[in-house]
Design a protein that fits this description.
Two copies of one chain form a homodimer.
Chain A lengths: L1 E6 L14 H20 L5 E5 L9 E3 L4 H11 L4 E4 L8 H9 L4 E5 L5 E6 L12 H12 L3 E3 L3 H4 L5 H10 L2 H9 L9 H8 L2 E5 L4 E5 L2
Parallel strand pairs in A: 1-2, 1-4, 2-3, 5-7
Antiparallel strand pairs in A: 4-6, 5-6, 8-9
């Protein structure tokens, strides 16, 4: 199975502009990408990047400056084997969560994102193509049906959490270290997991803040 | 295992006031509760309600008008067997998702909510107590550690999605019928699943609407 990670190399994460400068958004996007690549590798697979521009990364890079949908469909068209398409901003992804996606049988296996997106999928049916515009999760269900592919849906909060907006940063602060926290609670000798996106946010001064109804983030001045 | 569903019987879902009238919020809360009870029953367990005031429901009802934390801890204190505490607004819950929660080993098993809440948990350790204020997921990890309970975390988008705000309604419209949609795509004879919360939203005129970056809901006038 190929595991392809699309990556917007230029001006990434624009919806985080109210929380991070342009340089910071690039650095944070790179940290999330590193976390995604590490989690894929921990499942025993070698990820590859599909980037909009040349980028230095610890993985093979294909550059395709077309929009996401067209670039991904070019990969699907050229490949006979199963292909996984995994978004680069799944900062909470774990090997277990990716394992559920990669190992589930199905002509098309989808991990929906919050808000109706498609955060990761596996395409085994040769005619299946993607369309990332709009409510792509529902569109992908329909597209799989059209080509006669059996569909499976992966129910994972970690894979449903793409980090696009300021509120999403709280999820990284909450869950980015919880495996380690939980491990320390139950197995004292467990090595502490490191997640680059969490480390980056913490070093940039972000921490959790809560009011009555909702948990958000604050940043040290 | 007891399965206890806390239910705010008076003026529920105040954070949906920008989308629904008071009467509508009550009706929608009842529809979500019915979905939760049905999903629990489909796992072979009999749910019971822990309500803030007398309420007509298709399950045994205990009335306790104290705040959520105190009322739940009273249940934990009086019970020797395992107790599951399941929020009443998990409109996307399925028997599979609840099965993952109920059947996972662990002194404390937690299904976190988006934003750091605790949407469902199973307490098997006799000394564990809840505190739903603030980032309760992290507090519950720490509380389990304090009493020496082994903790497991359930990674489920369905269980992470409590329906509190207008944006959450989109999740119901997207995923409330997707099991049925997927079943119809793959197994033509499958009976169509019904979800009362989805039916209620649709009959109230809600449907999905999307702009470039985010999917929301609109309501027919």
């Amino acid at each position: 199975m190929r595991v392809v990670v699309p990556y917007a190399a230029t001006d990434p994460k624009t919806r985080l502009a109210d929380a991070l400068s342009a340089d910071e958004r690039t650095a944070f996007a790179e940290a999330m990408l590193a976390d995604v690549l590490a989690a894929v590798r921990a499942t025993g697979r070698e990820p590859e990047l599909l980037a909009t521009a040349p980028v230095a990364a610890d993985a093979p890079v294909t550059v395709d400056d077309r929009p996401l949908t067209e670039a991904v469909n070019a990969v699907l068209a050229e490949t006979d084997e199963a292909v996984a398409i995994v978004m680069a901003d799944l900062a909470l992804a774990t090997p277990d969560a990716f394992g559920q996606l990669f190992e589930r049988d199905g002509g098309v296996v989808i991990a929906p994102g919050r808000g109706g997106g498609t955060n990761a999928l596996v395409a085994r049916h040769p005619e299946f193509r993607v369309d990332y515009h709009g409510t792509s999760f529902l569109d992908h269900l329909a597209a799989a049906q059209e080509v006669g592919a059996a569909v499976e849906v992966v129910d994972s909060h970690r894979l449903a959490t793409d980090v696009d907006e300021r509120a999403d940063l709280a999820e990284v602060l909450i869950h980015g270290g919880s495996e380690a926290r939980r491990a320390s609670a139950t197995r004292a000798a467990e090595p502490r997991a490191t997640r680059k996106s969490l480390e980056w946010l913490q070093s940039a001064g972000f921490s959790l803040a809560s009011d009555e109804s909702r948990v958000g983030v604050v940043r040290d001045e």
